[in-house]
């Protein structure tokens, strides 16, 4: 395994237990997502894996190197793209890439390949300070790849980008997957992003991993479709009881505030809606839709990723 995390834990001075003994493995070539709302512990986990935050206990290995005992070797095997800019704004894009290649003792012809792969040819000779947010991110990912890392960490790579640029960048990141044996660990609080990019996803909540699987399998548990009821009087648990008794709602139905969410397994949406009427449940609205990772998260934690984002 390229990344091995065992019982990894971080308690900050002052007593906040940001990461509570998590375990996961990521294989060569895998794109692995850490998904969770603000405060879930994603950045702290990445900080420990990139040797900038000392674990309180537990271990993490990158390409076999222990991040606490062999930090230099662990760092040499990996590259990080943080949210904060790291490129030198006064230099051109090419200047930044060349500087980084010299630091790593990497041959210059690799830079040409990266410029092409990241669509930087048109801007690479301009100073970085004139780059748009999306251009700068592309340059930063290219720079991170100069050293040919075994592991690439991307911390919230699309934060602050407008939707069009965000999708462009996601295509670029998705393209990394096809390329190499490189392992990618990406943190995000965007569900669609995790679903689109990742082979497997760990959902974090209050310092713990509450689910870990492929996006397909995380969603599979929620059936073919979801019926969502917004109730008039707000007593969602009381409305759920008769629907459970009739077998329309299963154990995986859940309530948040006045919203009742029912994954459908054996019934159609029309049957579910008829049962809601028959049970005399008064609704403000009823909708049907496909399950999302937000449902997975809600069911596990009672909190919404989308609200937190
Ligand atoms: P995420 O990246 O998922 O938003 P973080 O790892 O940043 O989560 O934070 C997890 C928890 O640890 C939060 O409660 C946060 O307030 C706390 N925390 C993060 N950094 C520090 C720090 N340097 N000192 C104390 N508490 C921190």
Topology:
Blueprint (H helix, E strand, L loop, with lengths): L2 E9 L5 E10 L4 E5 L6 H8 L7 E6 L2 E2 L4 H6 L1 E4 L11 H12 L4 H9 L15 H13 L5 E5 L7 H17 L3 E6 L2 H7 L2 E6 L2 E6 L1 H6 L4 E7 L4 H10 L8 E3 L2 E6 L4 H10 L4 E7 L3 H9 L3 H4 L1
Parallel strand pairs: 3-8, 3-9, 6-7, 7-8
Antiparallel strand pairs: 1-2, 1-4, 4-5, 9-10, 11-13, 11-14, 12-13
This protein binds adenosine-5'-diphosphate.
Helix vs. strand class:
alpha/beta
Query: Uncertain segments of ≥5 residues (pLDDT<50)?
Result: none
- For this structure, what is the CATH homologous superfamily of the largest domain? P-loop containing nucleotide triphosphate hydrolases
Helical segment tally? 12
- The overall number of domains is 2
Q: Name the quaternary structure.
A: single chain
Q: Give Rg in angstroms.
A: 23 Å
Shape: elongated
Largest sheet: 6 strands, mixed
> What's the CATH C level of the largest domain?
Alpha Beta
Spatial strand sequence of the major β-sheet: 6-7-8-3-9-10
The CA-CA distance between the termini, in Å, is 31 Å
Rounded average pLDDT: 90
Descriptive notes:
- With about 300 residues, the chain is α/β, with parallel strands linked by helices.
- The protein has helices at about 40-50, 70-75, 95-105, 110-115, 135-145, 165-180, 190-195, 215-220, 235-245, 270-280, 295-300, 305-309; strands at about 5-10, 15-25, 30-35, 55-60, 65, 80, 150-155, 185-190, 200-205, 210-215, 225-230, 255, 260-265, 285-290.
- It has a six-stranded mixed beta sheet with strand order 6-7-8-3-9-10, with helices on both faces. The protein has a four-stranded antiparallel beta sheet with strand order 2-1-4-5. It has a four-stranded antiparallel beta sheet with strand order 12-13-11-14, with helices on both faces.
- Helix 4 packs antiparallel against helix 5 (about 135-145) and helix 5 runs parallel beside helix 6 (about 165-180).
- The two termini are about 30 Å apart.
- The mean pLDDT is about 90.
- Adenosine-5'-diphosphate (ADP) binds near residues 16, 39, 40, 42 and 43.
């Amino acid at each position: 395994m390229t990344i091995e995390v065992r019982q990894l834990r971080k308690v900050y001075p002052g007593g906040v237990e940001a990461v509570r003994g998590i375990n996961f493995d990521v294989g060569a070539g895998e794109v692995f997502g850490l998904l969770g709302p603000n405060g879930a512990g994603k950045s702290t986990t990445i900080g420990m894996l990139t040797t900038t935050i000392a674990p309180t206990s537990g271990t993490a290995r990158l390409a076999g190197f222990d991040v606490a005992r062999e930090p230099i070797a662990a760092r040499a095997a990996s590259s990080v793209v943080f949210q904060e800019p790291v490129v030198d704004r006064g230099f051109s894009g090419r200047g930044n890439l060349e500087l980084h290649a010299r630091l790593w003792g990497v041959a210059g012809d690799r830079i040409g390949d990266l410029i092409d792969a990241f669509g930087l040819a048109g801007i690479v000779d301009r100073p970085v300070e004139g780059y748009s947010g999306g251009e700068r991110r592309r340059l930063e990912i290219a720079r991170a790849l100069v050293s040919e890392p075994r592991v690439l960490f991307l911390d919230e790579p699309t934060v602050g980008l407008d939707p069009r640029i965000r999708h462009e960048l996601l295509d670029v990141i998705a393209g990394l997957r096809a390329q190499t044996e490189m392992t990618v660990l990406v943190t995000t609080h965007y569900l669609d992003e995790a679903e689109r990019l990742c082979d497997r996803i760990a959902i974090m909540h209050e310092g713990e991993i509450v689910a870990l699987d492929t996006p397909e399998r995380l969603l599979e548990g929620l059936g073919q479709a979801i019926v969502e009821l917004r109730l008039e009087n707000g007593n969602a648990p009381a409305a759920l009881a008769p629907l459970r008794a009739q077998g329309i709602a299963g154990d995986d139905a859940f309530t948040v505030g006045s919203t009742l969410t029912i994954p459908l397994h054996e019934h159609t949406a029309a049957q579910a809606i008829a049962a809601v009427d028959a049970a005399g449940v008064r609704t403000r609205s009823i909708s049907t839709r496909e399950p999302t990772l937000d449902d997975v998260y809600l069911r596990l934690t009672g909190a919404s990723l989308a609200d937190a984002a």
